[in-house]
């Protein structure tokens, strides 16, 4: 009897796992993908979408088509609870899924509860599908009247989004859109070299983006309230805080790492439940290794899994708008159009690795629709 392998979540590693299974089918297992969204959104392409350089479709892969091309059944649903010991997943509608092997790559969501008023008044970068779907509403608002936009967050995603917003809403530095970035006390880019920070500060100033280095205490219908009590005019707020792990992980029984994600051994198996897998902190960089381990685990007679070596990317990227990017390797920094072209090429290759050929997608979409219906029946 074939083993049942469940891919829990449509994160970046699972997108590449599915694409790999589409190219070379998985042998010895029945495969299923559980996710809530109809699209897999490539987060690295979102800044170009925000800036207006890419349409939304260029950020997405079709979930059902990709699952079908990989020989998987797509189960559309949200996780309510997980029993790691029983390898059982309970969905929000009460349905239950059981598997012999489970791999976890659930895209993290915004920690909306961490900021008062965020649930009512902010559009969060995560989940990415919701952000891409709703973002055009902000563009429409800015086309009708001058707007004050406040981005709350820090790190590369927050900076990239803010610079992209300036390119989209105020391309000539005009006053139709006034943009502020509330980065908090930790600064814009914690852990990045001083040369990269200096370049980012120059770009933000050039784009007339005001940076506040104190925390945001609350969001209101027309204002962002800072920790000092100062109020910033705010017609639209974007939440770009570091994402939080899926809430169900805390009660799943799985051992968790410091970041709240499943703790894994060098074999990418859970430290507490060896039938559970996860890409670990390396995330997308671990996709090829995760694919290999899942193939091995699907072969029930394969024996203990060997450890795998994962090399995180040596380069860090920050997309700066106007086709420019900033690349950091160790302490060296390269910025400008050449870095932007290089970054765009790598993003495109990564997107293509996580997708499928158009002909396969068309065939997979029909098969995927049928597989989804049968899964929900």
Beta-strand share of residues:
25-35%
The helix count comes to: 10
The description of the largest β-sheet is:
5 strands, parallel
Average pLDDT level: 88
Please provide the count of β strands: 21
Global shape: globular
Intertermini distance: 23 Å
Which percent bin holds the helix content? 25-40%
The residue ranges in which pLDDT falls below 50 over 5 or more consecutive positions are: 357-371, 373-377
Summarize the structure.
The chain has 377 residues and is α/β, with parallel strands linked by helices. The protein is 32% helix and 25% strand.
What does this structure look like?
The chain is of the alpha/beta class. It contains ten helices and 21 strands. The protein has helices at 12-23, 46-51, 63-69, 118-121, 128-144, 156-169, 194-206, 287-298, 337-353, 358-376, and strands spanning 3-8, 29-35, 39-41, 60-62, 72-76, 79-83, 88-91, 96-98, 101-104, 122-124, 147-153, 177-182, 210-212, 216-219, 223-226, 231-233, 236-240, 276-277, 315-321, 324-329, 332-336. The chain has a five-stranded parallel sheet. A five-stranded parallel sheet has the order 10-17-11-12-13. A three-stranded antiparallel sheet has the order 6-7-8, with no helix packed on it. A hairpin with a 2-residue loop joins strand 19 and strand 20 (324-329). Helix 3 crosses helix 10 (358-376). It is globular and about 65 Å long. The two termini are 23 Å apart. Mean pLDDT is 88; it is low at 357-371 and 373-377.
How would the blueprint of this fold be written?
Layout: E1 3-8, H1 12-23, E2 29-35, E3 39-41, H2 46-51, E4 60-62, H3 63-69, E5 72-76, E6 79-83, E7 88-91, E8 96-98, E9 101-104, H4 118-121, E10 122-124, H5 128-144, E11 147-153, H6 156-169, E12 177-182, H7 194-206, E13 210-212, E14 216-219, E15 223-226, E16 231-233, E17 236-240, E18 276-277, H8 287-298, E19 315-321, E20 324-329, E21 332-336, H9 337-353, H10 358-376
Parallel strand pairs: 1-2, 1-9, 2-5, 9-18, 10-17, 11-12, 11-17, 12-13
Antiparallel strand pairs: 3-4, 6-7, 7-8, 14-15, 15-16, 19-20, 20-21
């Amino acid at each position: 009897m074939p083993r049942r392998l469940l891919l829990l979540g449509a994160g970046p590693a699972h997108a590449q796992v599915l694409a790999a299974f589409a190219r070379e089918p998985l042998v010895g297992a029945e495969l299923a993908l559980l996710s809530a969204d109809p699209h897999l959104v490539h987060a690295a392409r979102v800044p170009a979408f925000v800036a207006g350089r890419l349409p939304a479709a260029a950020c997405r892969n079709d979930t059902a088509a990709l699952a079908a091309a990989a020989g998987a059944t797509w189960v559309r649903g949200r996780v309510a609870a997980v029993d790691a010991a029983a390898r059982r997943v309970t969905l929000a509608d009460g349905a239950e899924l059981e598997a012999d092997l489970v791999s976890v790559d659930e895209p993290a969501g915004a920690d909306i509860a961490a900021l008062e008023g965020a649930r009512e008044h902010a559009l969060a970068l995560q989940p990415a599908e919701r952000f891409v779907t709703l973002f055009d509403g902000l563009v429409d608002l800015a086309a009708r009247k001058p707007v004050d936009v406040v981005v709350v967050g820090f790190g590369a995603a927050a900076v990239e989004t803010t610079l992209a917003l300036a390119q989209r809403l105020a391309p000539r530095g005009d006053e139709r859109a006034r943009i502020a970035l509330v980065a908090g006390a930790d600064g814009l880019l914690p852990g990045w070299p001083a040369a990269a920070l200096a370049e980012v500060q120059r770009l933000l100033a050039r784009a007339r983006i005001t940076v506040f280095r104190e925390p945001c205490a609350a969001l209101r219908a027309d204002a962002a309230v800072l920790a000092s009590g100062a109020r910033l005019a705010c017609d639209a707020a974007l939440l770009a805080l570091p994402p939080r792990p899926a809430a169900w992980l805390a009660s799943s029984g799985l051992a968790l790492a410091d970041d709240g994600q499943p703790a894994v051994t060098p074999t990418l198996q859970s430290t507490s439940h060896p039938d559970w897998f996860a890409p670990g902190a390396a995330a997308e960089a671990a996709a090829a290794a995760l694919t290999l381990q899942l193939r091995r685990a699907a072969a029930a007679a394969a024996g203990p899994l060997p450890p795998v070596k994962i090399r995180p990317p040596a380069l860090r990227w920050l997309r700066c708008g106007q086709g420019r990017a900033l690349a950091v390797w160790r302490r060296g920094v390269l910025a400008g159009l050449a870095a932007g072209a290089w970054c765009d090429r790598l993003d495109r290759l990564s997107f293509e690795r996580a997708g499928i050929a158009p002909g396969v997608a068309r065939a997979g979409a029909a098969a995927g629709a049928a597989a989804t219906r049968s899964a929900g029946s």
